[in-house]
Amino acid sequence: MHAEFDESEALRSRIRVLEAIGRAQSRIGEVVALAAVTGNRDDLCRMLAQMLDITEETAHVVAIMSLERLATPYSRARISEELAELRSMPNPPEQAR
């Protein structure tokens, strides 16, 4: 049972991260502009969390990603495909912010 909980929580966490990356990708210009004017990573994470309606922990993942990984069409397609695959799993975990 404990392993199932851990796996379920890991899956929910991965879905949250992929959703956050997708939001950042769809607003890449704003993300880059925000990063350019923000004084430090903590401020950037706080502002990204607010802008993208995600947790600061998840915003940290977005903040440390390379621009290439966020902006390329190939990366966008991979993120979308993985998210669709996870969501289509039998009994997918509830989505969380």
UniProtKB/TrEMBL annotation:
This is ANTAR domain-containing protein. GO terms for molecular function: ATP binding; DNA binding; DNA topoisomerase type II (double strand cut, ATP-hydrolyzing) activity.
